[in-house]
C-alpha cells in the first residue's frame, strides 16, 4: 500500500473557492486501463474524456452537519453521527474536543449535547472499539437540530471550519451522509450542462456515507443506498449499445455493485449494503471511476485496484505525487477509464 501514496502527500487544506478559484479548478489525472496511458488535465476538461452515450452515475446524498459539541463526565467531546439505526438510535463516534481519537466509548454513559439534548451510549457497534450505538434525545427534528448546533465533520488536514455548504455537491438532494461524497464536488451546473449538451448521460443513485476514519483492520460498515429503477434501466441500455458506465465516487460503485446480477444486469434496489469491493471480486456494473486521492491505509484503495489494476494504480499515484496533486475532499481528481 505504501507504494500507492507518498508518506507526505500534498493535502488540500481548504476548498479551491477559498483560494479564489472555482470548484472545478482542480487537477485531473486520467488513467486508461486498456492502453496504460496517463494524461494530466483539468477537471473543467472532463468532457474530453467522456463522450456521447457514456453514463455518469452520481450520488445525490447531501451532507449532514453531523459533528456535535458535547460534554461527557465534565469533559468536552465531539460526537459524530454516522448511521441511523432503529427508532432514535444512531451509530456514533466519539472524538476529543480537538477532534482526536477518544478511545472506546464508555458504555452506559451519557453525552450532554446543546439545547438540552443528550445521547445515551448503549453498546459497542459491530464488536468494535471505535463506534457505538447511542439513543438520541433531541428537542426537535434532527435536521433542524443539526442545522442550528452541528458542524461538518473535519479532520486535521482541514485547518479551520467551513460552512456546511462547502461540503455539499451540486447533486445533493437527500440529506443523510455523515461525510461528503466528495468525488462529485468539482462539478458545477455549467459543467453538467456542457456534458449533457455533448450527449453524456447523467443518472442518480443515493448512498449515505458513514464516518470514514476506519481503524487498521476495520472494513467499511453497512450504508443505506437506493438505486432507482430508471437508473438501472438506463445503465443496462448504455451497456447494450457499448457505452461506458462511470461511477462518480466509490459510494456510487458500492451502490451499483450491490444491485448487479452475475450477468452484469442492474436491478433497482433500496436498503443497506455491506458489500466490500476487492480486486478479487472485481467490478461487474461499473466500467470507469471518477474519484479523489486516498491515503495508503484507506479502505478505498482495494476498490480502486479493482477498477484500475495494481500496476496502473501505482503509476497513477506516483505521477500524481510527482505533479503535486492534492489529496482529500477538497483536492484533485482521478479518472480511471477502461
Question: What oligomerization state is this entry in?
Answer: single chain
Kindly estimate the percentage of residues that lie in beta strands according to DSSP: 25-35%
Q: Please, how many domains? A: 2
Helix content: 10-25%
CATH homologous superfamily caption of the largest domain: QueA-like
Low-pLDDT sequence parts: none
Shape: globular
> Over the alpha carbons, how many angstroms does the gyration radius reach?
20 Å
Strands of the biggest beta sheet: in what spatial order? 3-2-19-17-15-4-13-14-16
Name of the CATH class of the largest domain: Alpha Beta
Number of helices: 6
Could you give a short description of this structure?
The protein is of the alpha/beta class and 338 residues long. It folds into 2 domains: 229 residues, QueA-like (3-Layer(aba) Sandwich); 83 residues, QueA-like (Thrombin, subunit H, Beta Barrel), CATH 2.40.10.240.
Sequence-ordered SSE layout with sheet pairings:
Layout: E1 10-11, E2 27-32, E3 38-42, E4 55-59, E5 61-63, E6 67-72, E7 75-84, E8 89-96, E9 110-112, E10 118-124, E11 131-137, H1 142-149, E12 174-177, H2 189-197, E13 201-207, E14 223-227, H3 229-240, E15 245-248, H4 250-259, E16 269-273, E17 288-291, H5 300-308, H6 310-322, E18 326-327, E19 333-337
Parallel strand pairs: 1-18, 2-19, 4-13, 4-15, 5-12, 15-17
Antiparallel strand pairs: 2-3, 6-7, 6-9, 7-8, 8-11, 9-10, 10-11, 13-14, 14-16, 17-19
Helix pairs in contact: 5-6
Amino acid at each position: 500500500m505504501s507504494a500507492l501514496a507518498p508518506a507526505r502527500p500534498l493535502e488540500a487544506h481548504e476548498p479551491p473557492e477559498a483560494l479564489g478559484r472555482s470548484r472545478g479548478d482542480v487537477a485531473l489525472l486520467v488513467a486508461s486501463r486498456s492502453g496504460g496511458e496517463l494524461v494530466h488535465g483539468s477537471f473543467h476538461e472532463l468532457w474530453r474524456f467522456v463522450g456521447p452515450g457514456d453514463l455518469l452515475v452520481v450520488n445525490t446524498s447531501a451532507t449532514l452537519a453531523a459533528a456535535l459539541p458535547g460534554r461527557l463526565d465534565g469533559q468536552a467531546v465531539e460526537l459524530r453521527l454516522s448511521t441511523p439505526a432503529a427508532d432514535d438510535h444512531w451509530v456514533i463516534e466519539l472524538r476529543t474536543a480537538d477532534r482526536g481519537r477518544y478511545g472506546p466509548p464508555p458504555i452506559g454513559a451519557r453525552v450532554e449535547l446543546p439545547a438540552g439534548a443528550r445521547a445515551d451510549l448503549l453498546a459497542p457497534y459491530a464488536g468494535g472499539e471505535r463506534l457505538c450505538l447511542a439513543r438520541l434525545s433531541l428537542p426537535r427534528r434532527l435536521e433542524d437540530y443539526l442545522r442550528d448546533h452541528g458542524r461538518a465533520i473535519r479532520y486535521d488536514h482541514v485547518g479551520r471550519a467551513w460552512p456546511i455548504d462547502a461540503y455539499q455537491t451540486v447533486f445533493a438532494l437527500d440529506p443523510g451522509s455523515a461525510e461528503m461524497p466528495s468525488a462529485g464536488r468539482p462539478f458545477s451546473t455549467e459543467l453538467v450542462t456542457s456534458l449533457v449538451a455533448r450527449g453524456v448521460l447523467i443518472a442518480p443513485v443515493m448512498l449515505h456515507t458513514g464516518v470514514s476514519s476506519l481503524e487498521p483492520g476495520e472494513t467499511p460498515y453497512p450504508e443505506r443506498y437506493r438505486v432507482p429503477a430508471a437508473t438501472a434501466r438506463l445503465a443496462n441500455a448504455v451497456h447494450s449499445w457499448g457505452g461506458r458506465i462511470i461511477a462518480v465516487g466509490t459510494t456510487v460503485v458500492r451502490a451499483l455493485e450491490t444491485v448487479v446480477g452475475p450477468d452484469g444486469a442492474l436491478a433497482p434496489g433500496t436498503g443497506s449494503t455491506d458489500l466490500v469491493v476487492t480486486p478479487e471480486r472485481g467490478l461487474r456494473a461499473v466500467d470507469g471511476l471518477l474519484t479523489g486521492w486516498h491515503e495508503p491505509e484507506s479502505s478505498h484503495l482495494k476498490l480502486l485496484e479493482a477498477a484500475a489494476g495494481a500496476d496502473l494504480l501505482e503509476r497513477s499515484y506516483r505521477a500524481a505525487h510527482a505533479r503535486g496533486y492534492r489529496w482529500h475532499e477538497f483536492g484533485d481528481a482521478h479518472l480511471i477509464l477502461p
